[in-house]
From TrEMBL:
It catalyses: ATP + protein L-histidine = ADP + protein N-phospho-L-histidine. It is an enzyme of class 2 (transferase). The modification 4-aspartylphosphate is found at residue 675. Its EC number is 2.7.13.3. Keywords: Kinase, Membrane, Phosphoprotein, Transferase, Transmembrane, Transmembrane helix. SUPFAM superfamilies: ATPase domain of HSP90 chaperone/DNA topoisomerase II/histidine kinase (SSF55874), CheY-like (SSF52172), Homodimeric domain of signal transducing histidine kinase (SSF47384), PYP-like sensor domain (PAS domain) (SSF55785). Residues 357-598 form the Histidine kinase domain. It comes from Acetobacter pomorum. The lineage of its organism: Bacteria, Pseudomonadati, Pseudomonadota, Alphaproteobacteria, Acetobacterales. Residues 624-741 form the Response regulatory domain. It comes from the Bacteria. PANTHER family: SENSOR HISTIDINE KINASE, TWO-COMPONENT SENSOR PPRA. The chain crosses the membrane at residues 12-31, 176-195. Pfam families: HATPase_c, HisKA, PAS_7, Response_reg. This is histidine kinase.
Length: 747
């Protein structure tokens, strides 16, 4: 194995390392000598010695001058004594630093230091005059002088120890220098051997890398999807042959260093680039963190269905020059075909998810109903009739909405008949439809409800039958955008034998027909209910898919495609049939074949239910409350209840509006009542966290139709917040508000 070319660089590195070792070794020896000579000479020890000498001199002067003054009473001796006493009094300020140094240098000095401090404290209380020296003062000065002598002797011994340490360190320096030289030589020899082995390993690794690169190249070319690897600067590093095929480009187009922007410029369909801008990729790379892949499905320039996926990659060592992104392109035409086929089979399963999603709206309707009924019960005075009627009308309207929603869902989802009356008179249905349809259909369409006084009762659920007729009427309205005529009629029909409904006579040119169940209708008495419009009719293609769930001819978002599916489910529930007859320019006729039932029984007459009397809430301390709810009806209920309780109520329809309202509010907020699911970037949980930072004492109540009695605080919610499940009544709202306020105050 030949030596690696970098071996000469390794040799130079060894020489440089040796020079550095010698240089830094010499510097280290000199630095060690300096540290040995001066390391133990502590500045604080020097200051402590000066302080001790000053005390000693001042004590000696005080004793000598005192004795001289006692002998001859000369003024200069008295002045000398007073000056010495003053120095000893002033020495108390630096005593603590002196004591710390003495204790650090050695033990056994506690008693002398304590005695010196007490003696200095005593001297500081003496009068500053020779005549004021108390009895025993001379002895105290003598004791102080003796204690200072003890401390001086200890300091002298410490200095001797430091000199001895310095001398001992000098001998260790020579030994360490010799050891350092030997270690340096051994390190150089070892480094040379290691680098020599490294050069051999590097040569082997380079050969292995070449082999790996060739294998990876073969692997990339064998993939069924196109792969392109770009650097962080947006230039092409690697690609495989399938990339050009998947993108519909010439193989010669791809070259090393190809700009990502140049590739994006040619991948344009109907004026829309297929690739994301390079600026977006650079922003993600600049963060330096892995990010989820960006995947998009689109039509390629060659008409194929493509799945484009962009993935970031980073070097393990974090080097910026070894980061970039990978672009893959897969032809998913066959996969999409399979998914579409599978999706058709899964539409009914998806309906269950659709129904669960409507549950939230249904709970909102219940909240509006209960809230308005409670408010109506409060306004029971004669002068409050109009207000009470307004609340009752709102509750009735919401009740009709919830009834229609429930009937449609249940009629489609249920497969067994539950709670269906024995009989139902169509006259009741037609009397309701006569006023209702005019509002639903609009003024451009004339609605006619035939006389059904002689029609037999039918065995069907009134709510489901009403929902089915309303669905048919709405479909008829959509088929007559320019206006027309809608006729609803019913008649009795008796078959002596099983009847094939597809063999009935064609009426008014409606020669295309479809029936919900091709089996013959059993013999007996039936009621035929017809919904007939004067629209343009249906095509054969539409007629063939009419009863399929999610099938609709309306624009995106204008219809769910569940209307006829629910009508079909209703007919199957009552064991009847649905027949649809249409023709070009002849309109459409939808016939519901319903089984005859016995006459109405007295137990089936609906009795009005009296509203429960609601106790007026006890007055409480007025608070400033912010109510956030995207459903205006629910928001009005909550605002009204809290306002009746004496609170000052602010309201908002979403999180951003609530934030603005809170910022503009006068004074602090005491309570936040918010729905968890709010439109926009600020949901209820995020909004509450933001407001709590501004109002730490804010009480929180979370509302949601997804909550139940045993629900726990959602993740991300504010601690001590309280939950309010929809639908709710006023008492329940006030109880939760009280609990939230108690949790805020710690009661």
């Amino acid at each position: 194995m030949p030596r690696h070319p970098a071996r000469r660089a390794h040799i130079l590195a060894l020489i440089g390392a040796g020079l550095l070792i010698v240089t830094f070794g010499t510097m280290g020896i000199e630095l060690g000598n300096e540290m040995a000579r001066h390391g133990d000479l502590d500045r604080q020890s020097t200051a402590a010695g000066s302080y001790l000498r000053g005390l000693h001199h001042a004590t000696s002067d005080a004793r000598i001058c005192h004795y001289a003054w006692e002998a001859e009473h000369r003024p200069e001796d008295g002045s000398c004594y007073v000056q010495a006493i003053q120095q000893l009094s002033d020495a108390r300020r630096g005593f603590e630093s002196f004591r710390v140094v003495q204790m650090r240098e050695g033990g056994g000095r506690v008693e002398p230091l304590q005695s010196v401090w007490q003696q200095l404290e005593t001297i500081s209380a003496w009068p500053h005059s020779p005549e004021g020296t108390p009895a025993g003062g001379a002895q105290l000065l003598a004791d102080l002088d003796q204690n200072l002598s003890v401390l001086s002797r200890a300091s002298t011994l410490d200095q001797a120890d430091r000199v001895a340490n310095m001398l001992r360190n000098t001998s260790w320096q020579r030994r360490l220098a010799l050891l350092g030289i030997l270690t340096g030589v051994f390190s150089l020899v070892s480094a040379g051997w290691v680098l020599d082995r490294s050069s051999l390993d590097a040569a082997r690794a380079e050969a292995s890398s070449r082999d790996l690169a060739l294998r990876l190249r073969a692997t990339l070319d064998s993939l069924s999807l196109g792969v392109a690897v770009f650097g962080a600067d947006g230039h092409l590093w690697h690609w495989n042959e399938q990339l050009a095929v998947a993108l519909g480009l010439e193989k010669s187009f791809f070259k090393p260093g190809l700009s990502y922007n140049d590739l994006s410029a040619v991948l344009v369909v109907d004026g829309v680039p297929l690739l994301e801008p390079l600026e977006h990729v650079e922003t993600s790379l600049a963060k330096g963190q892995p990010a989820p892949p960006v995947v998009v499905e689109c039509k390629g320039i060659n008409g194929a269905d493509l799945e484009l996926c962009r993935t970031l990659f980073f070097a393990p060592d974090g080097a910026a020059e070894r980061r970039g992104f990978v672009l893959t392109a897969a032809d998913i035409t066959m996969r999409l075909r399979s998914e579409r086929a599978l999706g058709e089979a899964q539409k009914l399963r998806a309906l269950g998810q659709f129904t669960a999603g409507i549950a939230h709206d249904f709970k909102n309707l219940l909240t509006v109903i209960l809230g308005n009924l409670e408010l109506a019960a409060e306004h029971d005075l004669p002068d409050q009739v109009e207000q009470r009627q307004e609340y009752l009308s709102a509750a009735t309207h919401a009740g009709h909405r919830s009834e229609a929603l429930t009937s449609q869902l249940l009629s489609f989802m249920r497969r067994q008949q539950t709670g269906v009356p024995d009989s139902f008179d169509l006259a009741d249905l037609f009397s309701l439809l006569d006023g209702l349809l005019a509002r639903v259909i609009g003024p451009r369409i004339v609605v006619e409800c035939a006389d059904v006084s002689g029609v037999w009762p039918v065995r069907a659920d009134p709510a489901q039958l009403e929902s089915a007729v309303l669905n048919l009427a709405i479909n008829a309205r959509d088929a007559m955008p320019s206006g027309g005529r809608l006729r609803i009629a019913a008649r009795n029909v008796t078959f002596s034998v099983n009847a094939d409904l597809m063999s009935l006579l064609v009426e008014e040119g409606r020669n295309m027909r479809v029936v919900s169940d091709p089996t013959p209708l059993p013999a007996g008495d039936w009621v035929r209910l017809d919904v007939i419009d004067s629209g343009s009719g249906m095509t054969r293609e539409v007629l063939d898919h009419l009863f399929e769930p999610f099938f609709t001819t309306k624009r995106e978002g204008a219809g769910t495609g569940l209307g006829m599916a629910m009508v079909l489910a209703f007919s199957q529930q009552v064991k009847g049939r649905v027949v649809v007859a249409t023709g070009s320019g002849s309109g459409t006729e939808v016939s519901l074949w319903l089984p005859k039932a016995a006459a109405l029984s007295a137990t089936q007459v609906l009795q009005p239910t009296s509203l429960p009397k609601v106790n007026k809430p006890a007055p409480s301390q007025a608070l400033q409350v912010l109510v956030v709810e995207d459903d205006a009806a629910i928001r009005d209920i909550v605002v009204t209840i809290l306002s009746m309780a004496g609170h000052r109520v602010l309201e908002a329809g979403d999180g951003e509006q609530a934030f603005d309202v809170a910022a503009a509010a006068e004074g602090p907020l005491d309570l936040l009542v918010t729905d968890i699911q709010l439109p926009g970037p600020l949901d209820g949980l995020t909004l509450s966290r933001v407001l709590v930072e501004r109002y730490p004492e804010l009480a929180i109540v979370y509302m949601s139709g997804d909550l139940t009695a045993d629900s726990k605080l959602p993740e991300g919610g504010v601690a001590n917040a309280r939950l309010l499940a929809k639908p709710f009544r006023r008492d329940g709202l006030m109880e939760v508000v009280t609990a939230a306020l108690s949790a805020r105050t710690g009661a």
